[in-house]
Amino acid sequence: MEITWDDVKTQEKDSYLLIDIREYEHSALGMVPGAIAISFIEDVNKLFELPKEKKIYLYCHKGELSIQAQELLQDAGYEAYSVTGGYYAYLENMLAD
After folding, report:
1. Which backbone phi and psi does 67 adopt, to 5 degrees?
2. Which letter does DSSP use for residue 63 in this model?
3. pLDDT by residue (tens digit) across 43-79?
4. What is the CA radius of gyration of the chain?
5. Is 19 within 8 Å of 2 (Cβ atoms)?
6. How many helices (H) and strands (E) does the chain have?
7. Cα angle 83, 88, 90; round to 5
8. Measured in Å, how far apart are the chain's first and last C-alpha atoms?
9. Entry pTM
10. Do the beta carbons of residue 66 and residue 59 sit within 8 Å?
11. CB of 8 within 8 A of CB of 53?
12. Which of 3, 5, 89, 94 has the fewest CB atoms lying closer than 10 Å?
């Protein structure tokens, strides 16, 4: 399942967790405000420590790796979404606003 940045903006912040799954060195260069860095490559098992009571919105660079993470979490019983276009789409969205 995918969700757009515009859709994320309309959600109540307490209803979801926003997870940056890029490698930590990339997250350190810039993240979406309020996001939590959990690298899919370096710390995939930490994703399974997230609470299942909240929606999980995942983003990577362009939205490709986050689709894999979303499918993995969904198979484990999470309500998980890949944010379409990833961090690059977020930056483009910020420039357009």
Report:
1. -65, -40
2. S
3. 999 999 999 999 999 999 998 899 999 999 999 999 9
4. 12
5. no
6. 4, 5
7. 60
8. 25
9. 0.95
10. yes
11. no
12. 94
- Alpha helices (H) in the chain, listed in sequence order: 5-10, 24-27, 65-75, 86-96
Nearest partner of 5 among 48, 54, 58, 68, judged by Cα: 58
Per-residue tokens: 66: 């986050």
- The residue with tokens 């999470």 is 78
DSSP-derived letter for residue 30 is: -
Are the C-beta atoms of 65 and 20 separated by less than 8 Å? no
Separation CA 68–CA 77 (nearest Å):
15
The single-letter code of the amino acid at 51 is P
Q: Is residue 60 flagged as an active site residue?
A: yes
